[in-house]
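Work Package 3 (structural annotation) set out to generate three-dimensional models for the target panel prioritized at the project kickoff. During this period the team completed the workflow that converts sequence records into discrete structure tokens, so that structures can be stored uniformly alongside our sequence database. As a representative example, we reproduce one entry of 142 residues exactly as it appears in the project archive.
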Amino acid sequence: MTRVREIMSRRPIVAAADTPARDVVDMLYEHDIRHVPVVRDGSVVGVVSDRDLRNLIDPRDVGTVSVEGLLEIQRRPISEMMSSDVVSVTQDSDITKAAELMVDHGVGSVLVIDSRTNHLEGIVSYTDILKHLFEFRADRDS
């Protein structure tokens, strides 16, 4: 049985709750990631994905929203756009549990949170799980 701690990313890129949305979009592109945990005073308060920020990324919106309107959206704090319903596991969780939660909730990642402190310990994405499965199969086939 593989535990989350074995495949999680230990130092995920995070955003403070008051970070402007545009800065989070920059983080997504700069680090080639799709999910950013949102923290306040060291505790997880939400998560934002590239899907949540589609209006900031999608150029088709330029025709329906004024340039000033888009700039205003981009200046808003990420806490206004994040999901506060965080799907999470602990480091001791089995990766099957993490995968089940992703499927059940329709999300591409789960946060790894210390259940006592609510502090972020890592993140597991569907890519992490797929990489593990491919490595497991390669080890079995060799």
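The CA atoms of residues 87 and 105 lie 8 Å apart.
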